[in-house]
Amino acid sequence: MPVQLLKIAKGQSEIPLPSHLQKENLQNLQEGCDNTNRYVQGIVTLSYPLTKLGDGTAFFKLVLQDPDNLSAQINGINVLIYGKMAEDCSKIIRHGETFIAAGFKVIKLPTAIENGRHGCHLEVSEEMGSAIYVCETEMVHIILPFSSGNKAYLFSVAPKYVYTPLNHLKDGTIVNLYGVVKFFKPPYISKGTDYCSVVTLVDQSNVKLTCNLFNGNLDSLPKIYKVGDIVRFHRIKIREYNGQMQGITSGGFASLTFDGTIGAPIVPRTSSKVYTFMDEEQKTIEELRIWAASNISVSGPAAKLSGVQPMQFFDLTCHLVGKAKVDGSSFLLKVWDGTKCPYLTWKVPVEAKDLEGDKVLLRQLKDLVVDILVYDNHVQLAESLEIGSFLRIYSIHTKQASADNEDVSHIEFHLHGGTCYGRGIGVLPESNPDVKELKVFLESVGLADSQNTESMCSTYADSTFYNVTDLELHLQRCQQLSVTVLTDHQDMSNTELKTVRNSTAPQQYRIRAKLRTYKPQKLHQSVKLHCSKCNSLQEVPNRDDFKLVLRGSASTTSNPELHNTSWYESVTWTTQDQREITIHFVKHDEMLPHPEDTLLMIEGGTLREIWKLSKRFKCVIPVRSTEDDLELLDLSAPFLLQGSVKYYGCKQCSTPKPVRYLSSLAAEQQPSWEPTEIAQVLGIELLQYVFIMKFTLVDETGALNAYLFDYEKFFQIPASEILTNNLLQERMQMAMDTLCPPGRKLGDLPWLECLIKSYNVRDETKNQVYYQIFDTTIAEDVV
DNA sequence: TTAGGATTCG
């Protein structure tokens, strides 16, 4: 038997192998040697799902780590297993187990060593006479890198942890548990001797548990960065408080925190050097992620400085550029997030000698950094922050005010005292995805940041190319809209409106006119759905129409025979109100892609559930079961949701096909899940969102009505997104207010440059000429 | 011990 499972008893050190086999060190492997009677041994630290190669051969890949060479630079080697061996191995291999391969082939990799991986990989198959031995261990302890930088892996037998669901907690017990973070206060200095963090968890039982966590060491508290993170607590004490269960740290408390995003790497955040982590736990996290995706709202009050409004509370991810002592009860943080706040921001006066941070940088970013005044209990923590670090400041309050000597009001940023609503400051590591994104942004505006203050000082002090004006201009270009009006035909000369009206159609003109008025005044009424096949226009269905269709299909139960096919994976559960929901996740290469790339089909969901899923996943298609396939719902409902956009099909021109036709797209190398492509394979004639408006244009010679028929080009706002996006609605309103400022006299209205074309519309009795705006876009510095 | 979620003095 080519794959053998060996059990190692406690204390047994030798692995019983055939005596002719000689051990080869993982570090000494070389291409071209005869390895028929040699074996390598290592610990499985990673394995990939079993797949099939193009010719149908089964293929299984894992990463082996050498436990004996703890300080080795080269750590992992890939082992590629083919054929039946691949199938057998995939069934029994678990992370942390000892893996032995005899009779392997060494292949040198074409590229240099990366990620600390080995310069070779191993190939193993029955055909080449290989043998595999797998030694089962019950539990793995992983020891994280020590301060010396060496990695150590220690294996021993340990008791299995039991995790208690949140609805089974009992007063006076000490338990282990998993949960999704529903609310948290980042660690702050308590009134006692410790740091404190308050964390509210929830799990699939829908029961909440608020935990009060204390530790004198900041690092020992969970590293939670946002709602939706997943935590694992060990040895937390449960008590009853005010009739509810409450968690509190007890001796030996330990925690792991994971990103709650489906598909994100499962890398625990912890300060503890030793922790246990098994495959089953990976599964627990994946399940919690999927559950949380439709049950937890993570849309926090995050904002960029460019998007802040007066009188709001928001979370800011930012770079600490300077800090200063103000007085005993307040402290100043000067931060930047790469964008410019559109309001005049306040500057807190401080003594120059009290201001810490790179002076050159502070001067360069003078009009971009914002002053955040933190109070009371936050002062001590703020004082300890390192310049150059990345922060998330939770629940900053923006206040509009004006000083006595100022004509215009400014905006102030306060982090008030107390910890209500999770108010506080957290330091983010460089590995945090939001920090990575921020760094990319800072770099894009010419600020390669550095954690190292000294190198930052020298970089900026020596820099000559880079000054305030350059940066401001760059930011203006980045953040403001451009200034053009015509997108084509700039060589045409202007025609007066009187001449346009007196000419025969069809023709094209360039005009210079003022917008006296427009319809509809309620801008959302300008959005319609257009079928380019039958040229019909219709109103956008409302949510009640959708609800009705969903309710109609709720009576259809999911057909289990249609679950878990070759191209999708299905999950079913029952909701608290006894509804059954089934989600079919479309796979790619046998795996579930990241949620932002995942198309899913849902049976039995409510409007709210579908809406939540569409925020998280690339595409959501509501379906119902028939006897032999999944099918789309009635076309009064959207057949596809992407983000906040609902896509509809034309009832007249569509011939819906069964959902299995989607599998052709799923099989593509990189499915793009474009609505047009999805519509095409499903036999749907896609309706397009379009703005339809009537502009009354005037110049010195006369007036005319011109229609705007615009998908996206004129406002630079997709018509498809306007109905669900308040910011875009505001932007459109601002644009219209600039084109046609309310309450302004005709003489004070701005000029518009437009291209219009005339066309004839005939009915039985008369011929009428209409005008349509084309190849024109809004001047972008208007918003 | 501390906090026990539930904004805003400055």
Structure overview:
This protein has 783 residues and is α+β, with helices and mostly antiparallel strands. It folds into 5 domains: 3-137, Nucleic acid-binding proteins (OB fold (Dihydrolipoamide Acetyltransferase, E2P)), CATH 2.40.50; 173-294, Nucleic acid-binding proteins (OB fold (Dihydrolipoamide Acetyltransferase, E2P), Beta Barrel); 305-443, OB fold (Dihydrolipoamide Acetyltransferase, E2P) (Beta Barrel), CATH 2.40.50; 484-526 and 690-778, Nucleic acid-binding proteins (OB fold (Dihydrolipoamide Acetyltransferase, E2P)), CATH 2.40.50.140; 539-684, no CATH class. The protein contains 14 helices and 40 strands. The strands form 7 sheets. Strands 1, 2, 3, 4, 5, 6, 7, 8, 9 and 10 form a 10-stranded mixed beta sheet that branches. Strands 13-15-16-18-17 form a 5-stranded mixed barrel. A 5-stranded mixed beta barrel has the order 20-21-23-25-24.
Short description:
The chain is α+β, with helices and mostly antiparallel strands. The chain has five domains: 3-137, Nucleic acid-binding proteins (OB fold (Dihydrolipoamide Acetyltransferase, E2P), Beta Barrel), CATH 2.40.50; 173-294, Nucleic acid-binding proteins (OB fold (Dihydrolipoamide Acetyltransferase, E2P), Beta Barrel); 305-443, Beta Barrel (OB fold (Dihydrolipoamide Acetyltransferase, E2P)); 484-526 and 690-778, OB fold (Dihydrolipoamide Acetyltransferase, E2P), CATH 2.40.50; 539-684, no CATH class.
